[in-house]
Structure formats: C-alpha cells, structure tokens
Amino acid sequence: MYSEELFKISKENMPGGVSSPVRAYKPYPFFAKQASGSKITDIDGKTYIDHCLGYGPLILGHANPKIVEAITDQAQKGTLYGVPTENEIKLSQEIINRVPCADMVRFCNSGTEATMSAIRLARGYTGRDKIVKFEGTYHGAHDYVLVKSGSGAATHPDSKGIPESTTQNTLSVPFNDEEALKELIEEEGNNIACIIMEVVMGNVGCIKPKKGYLDFIRKLTIDYGIILIFDEVITGFRLSSGGAQEYFGVTPDICTFAKILGGGLPIGAIAGKQKIMELFAPNGPVYQAGTFSGNPLSIRAGITALEQLDKSFYDTLNKKGNLLRLRLKDNIEDLGLNLQVNGIGSMFQIYFNPEPVTNYTEAKKSDSDLFTDYFHELLKNGVFIAPSQFECCFLSGAHSDEDLEKTSYAIEKSLKTIYQ
Ligand code: PLP
C-alpha cells in the first residue's frame, strides 16, 4: 500500500492519522519504510536526505551501527528490570562530566516529563508558584507550559482542556527583550519560582539569544532567588558536548534533556545542582517517578551515542553547519530574494520573512503558505525537513559533504520554483 492509502486508513484509527500533530501535513504525509545514515526512504520508494532527523535526536544519523549493535545486545538481556542498573550510573556520570550545571541527574522518558518535573522541582525548592517562559518556546505538551507555545502548538495554538487555574501562574515575555523581562521581574520577582527557557529557540524556527542576554537573565535570577532552567531538549549534546550552557558559558541551576540523550530511543532527564536535585523523592518532598524511567534500552543507546560525541565531532559538525548557512545565504542573495537564514551549530531554518527574526512575533510574520510550498518542492527535490516554518532543520554526523551540496542545490531549485 502507498502513503496516500495508508493515511486514509490511519485517519480512521488515530486522530488526524498521526501520533503527534506536526506530522500531519497536507495532502498526506509520506509513510516511512526505513532509514539509514542521512537518508530516509518512504513506503512509495522515494529516498530523501533527512534534515528533520526525528525532530532533532538523530545527531548520528539513522540506524547508527554502534547504537544498533548496543540495543540489539541489550534487548537480549532484558528491556525493563524495575530496579537500578549500573548503566544508569554510567550515563549520569557522563552527563555530570560534560554539563556545567549537572551535579546530579534524574532520568525520565521524554522532554515533556523532564520540563514538568523541573518546574515542580523549582516550585518545591523555592516555595513559589509562578513561572516565567518566553513567547514561542516549547517545553512539551503538559498543561503548565502550553502558553504562547512554539512547535506544533504554534500552528495549533490555545489548547482546549487546560483549566485557566493551571496556567494563571505561567507568565510569558518576548524573547531577547531585556526591558520586558526586567519589568516583569521587578513586579513579580519574589513570587517567581523559575524562568524556563530554550537558550536557542528551536520551536519557532531557530532564534539565537542576543549578545549579553543570557548573562542578563542569569544575574536577574540570582538577584531574585529565581531558579534558572535551561530546557536543553534540543540544544543538549547538539551545540556542544556540554550543551548550550557550555557553548554560551552561562550556567543555569537546572537543565532538561531528552532527544539526543536517548540515542534515538525515548528518554528524558533533569540535571542540576545537588542542593536542588536532592529534593526529588525518595530523598526529598518533590514527587517524580516513572515505570520506564532509566529503561535499559534507552540508557544503553544514550551511552553509545555519547561515546561517539566528542569535541572533534562537534567541531566538524558545526563547521558543516556554518558552511551550509553561508552557502544558503549566498544562493538566496544570488536569486535576488530577501529571506532570513537563521541558525547556529548544526541547526538552521529559512524564514520567509524580509525582516530579521529575533523573537516569536517576528517569526509569526513569516509567510507560512510560502514555506509550505517550499516544503513540498523540497520533497520533490529529494530533501525532507519538518513541515512547518516553526520548526528547525538539523544536520547529523552522517551527512556527507555531497549530501550538503545536494541539499543546498535542492533548496535553491525549490526557491526558484516557488518564486517564479
Ligand atoms: N522542550 C523542547 C525544547 C522541545 O523541543 C521539546 C520537543 O520538541 C520538548 C521539550 C518536549 O519533548 P518531548 O517531545 O520528548 O516530550
């Protein structure tokens, strides 16, 4: 059966035919058959260079041979024990070695769980209820943070089913705006448990913090006794070995991981300073738990992924990212177009916007319809990216120079077609 027919059936079985909303693009999404390295092949027989990469986790590409070997071996030894394992110590130690804020680690199963628990921890530690997030950041699909949210929620905003009482303590401010944050903190600072932020906003495309912005936030949070949470679900183990906090040299109190940490399998983690982390049950009064938390397959895949992610890996990958963005900028200029190429390290996005994009409001001014045309042209030209202006594109270590040449050519060709 082909993707078109499968989608008709899947819509009968599953709401919208998908297990996560952003996957459901029109007229129908391609159904995956298999994937290897930098490529994904659909059930209809077409192969694409993949820059969606499972929405970020696959920094080593699909079916990384060492990870496949490790999880095959682990599966034979059992996939769930319900008791601690030595490998959890190994992976937590690796995180502690790499990540500046990490004295201790609690594993869970997804980024959503990680941010939910990190916020609870901050509230438990400070005894305060209010939290601050930034417009357009996405911290998962739980109730507290689905306020002016990015990712799929930027396309399908304002979820029903969330009581106002749940979000009345969630305050949001524009990203990269020191004045707006200062004003809010001066008014509410002593009631605020935490500021949670994506250091690089990867759920409204790709937006970097302005120079000095992170230092400004760090100082403000220290002054008011507010816990600073870096949500590194995307940036963790992507920008550098120690994540965005190492890359930018600003250390939060707590951070959250998921995606890359699981080596392609589901995982989440909260890492942070000991005096805060010790509050998690069973040591402390902040409850946090999960049947599958620290599950042997994900932990083993995570260890095997991190073993391959050393400094030289990031130097090479980030260099490739820089080159690709430069090439895209040149091509766009040669075509006489005025579009924004945003990105950092191995993250990038093109905004269909004539003005620079530094926050959510500016990102939302981009022409999403044109982006959709571009997305479909790219598919025709053999490149798969996330089907939304408000997602980020990624590179992996499996992308060869030839892949990247093909990608930049496909982007140029697609832009020519949609603007002709
Ligand atoms: N935080 C950020 C920054 C994310 O990008 C995501 C997912 O894309 C999440 C949290 C939620 O992670 P998960 O989808 O694993 O629940």
Q: What's the gist of this structure?
A:
Strand 7 (192-197), helix 8 and strand 8 (227-231) form a beta-alpha-beta unit. With 420 residues, this protein is of the alpha/beta class.
List keywords for this structure.
40% helix, binds pyridoxal-5'-phosphate, 420 residues, 2 domains, seven-stranded mixed sheet, Aspartate Aminotransferase, domain 2, 14 strands, Aspartate Aminotransferase, domain 1, alpha/beta, 15% strand, four-stranded mixed sheet
Range of helix content? 25-40%
Could you describe the largest sheet, including whether it forms a barrel? 7 strands, mixed
How does CATH name the architecture of the largest domain?
Answer: 3-Layer(aba) Sandwich
Query: What's the arrangement of strands in the largest beta sheet?
Result: 4-10-9-8-7-5-6
- Quaternary state of this entry equals single chain
Secondary-structure element order, as H and E?
HEEEHHEHEHHEHEHEHEEHHHEEHHEEH
Query: What small molecules does this complex bind?
Result: pyridoxal-5'-phosphate
Could you report the average pLDDT, rounded to the nearest whole number? 97
